[in-house]
Design brief:
97 residues, 4 helices, mainly alpha
Length: 97
């Protein structure tokens, strides 16, 4: 759970995805670029009511949905944010100049 009112792109979110955690977050900063409906649960705003609704959605989700979100999060992490992927992107950037 990330209940931030201001955020960049939290490393803790990326680490959680790599471990198969399903995020429940507020829609601030870089979080909105990561947590889509196929990755986790995003509140509609930063109010307690909106976050509570997102948390309830998580708690009421069936096992198949949760397992799908876990796998999607791991896949996103491996595709976009793993150390191997980031190193390859930096290598390509530095060698393209």
């Amino acid at each position: 759970m990330l209940t931030s009112t201001f955020e960049g792109l939290p490393i803790s979110l990326l680490e959680a995805l790599s471990a198969g955690a399903v995020p429940v977050c507020t829609p601030v900063g870089g979080i909105i670029n990561i947590v889509a409906k196929n990755i986790g649960f995003l509140s509609t705003d930063i109010s307690i009511e909106a976050f509570s609704n997102a948390l309830r959605s998580y708690l009421n989700a069936d096992e198949a949905t949760i397992n799908n979100l876990k796998q999607n999060g791991k896949d996103l992490y491996n595709k976009e944010f793993s150390m191997k992927t980031c190193a390859a992107k930096y290598d390509a950037l530095y060698h393209s100049a």
